[in-house]
Amino acid sequence: xxxxxxxxxxxxxxxxxxxxxxxxxxxxxxxxxxxxxxxxxxxxxxxxxxxxxxxxxxxxxxxxxxxxxxxxxxxxxxxxxxxxxxxxxxxxxxxxxxxxxxxxxxxxxxxxx
Length: 113
Known about the structure:
5 helices; Substrate Binding Domain Of Dnak, Chain:A, Domain 2; mainly alpha
């Protein structure tokens, strides 16, 4: 997919990074891992959103197995995951994103069931 893009300049490091070996992962984790976000509120909200997205993904996968698809949920998953890397978002914006993640989570339960 990356090769199909014409403008890669604004992509986050997570989208374009390529590993040269297993040892490199541990070194990068110190600088890119969960604890690399110094602000505890921002870090906690990002983690809350990430766990919500994991649950939403599970419900979406279950729906896909049942041959159901919701493009709105898929688009939200991608958008929200990208926003967890956005250092310009403040606490209020992340709280709103966490609530929106919950809204989509409730929607996906009915969709996948």
